[in-house]
């Protein structure tokens, strides 16, 4: 595994200057791969006109989103012991790292971005969680045949995914196929980026409940601020 991690870091270093930085979550210590030359990377993207759609082209997957911790704490309430968890749009895999503290039978973190998958794999290997977390490429909008071997999960969760409105319809179809009959899907979205349309759309096939959670978090300037998150919970209709 050490050789696998070394190769990953070598591949990543062709695009980014990185280092592992400490991240403590309620007494559990992790080290997360972080981009050190983000400003230079963004400047290069601007110079080469590589940013066509900021939501898709910017390395948002590298950010440690506070919503991942909000959703991670909620997972404890859904009886994780012996159950399976799929993280969608996992980016560098923070939510799955949080979930690894709970007794899930298996955890899968996924994304469509290859760099995000490299970062997630590096985080899993560096934190010695390869027996707990599997990293896979997964596109919820792909044809059904592409994920024919993907099982159904007890819990499917995603942080900051619903702001991509073009994913709403394929996401509902994906949940119909891959959420167990008695399973639960949970989504956490910053209130400022909420998309009420998703709950209405999903409500045709699922029982949908929404609530809000306020938390205190530090912004990029290190200042503490209060943020409000929308929690969307879906379950199959009986």
Write the layout of secondary structure elements.
Blueprint: H1 2-12, E1 18-25, E2 28-35, H2 38-47, H3 54-57, H4 66-75, E3 84-87, H5 94-99, E4 106-111, H6 114-126, E5 133-137, E6 153-159, H7 168-178, E7 179-190, H8 196-202, E8 206-218, E9 224-236
Parallel strand pairs: 3-4, 3-6, 4-5, 6-7
Antiparallel strand pairs: 1-2, 7-9, 8-9
Helix pairs in contact: 1-6
What does this structure look like?
This protein is α/β, with parallel strands linked by helices and 238 residues long. It has one domain: Rossmann fold (3-Layer(aba) Sandwich). Helices cover 30% and strands 32% of the residues. The chain has eight helices and nine strands. The chain has helices at 2-12, 38-47, 54-57, 66-75, 94-99, 114-126, 168-178, 196-202; strands at residues 18-25, 28-35, 84-87, 106-111, 133-137, 153-159, 179-190, 206-218, 224-236. The strands form two sheets. Strands 5-4-3-6-7-9-8 form a seven-stranded mixed sheet, with helices on both faces. α6 (114-126) links the parallel β4 and β5. α1 packs antiparallel against α6 (114-126). The protein is globular, with a radius of gyration of 18 Å.
Radius of gyration: 18 Å
Number of domains: 1
SSE string: HEEHHHEHEHEEHEHEE
Q: Structural class of the helices, strands and pairings?
A: alpha/beta
Main β-sheet description: 7 strands, mixed
Q: Report mean pLDDT, rounded to a whole number.
A: 89
Strand order of the largest sheet: 5-4-3-6-7-9-8
N-end to C-end Cα span: 44 Å
CATH class annotation? Alpha Beta
What CATH calls the topology is: Rossmann fold
Number of DSSP strands? 9
CATH architecture: 3-Layer(aba) Sandwich
Which percent bin holds the helix content?
Answer: 25-40%
Question: How much of the polypeptide forms β-strand, as a percent range?
Answer: 25-35%
- Supply the CATH superfamily name: Vaccinia Virus protein VP39
Count of DSSP H/I helices = 8
* Unreliable stretches: none
Shape: globular
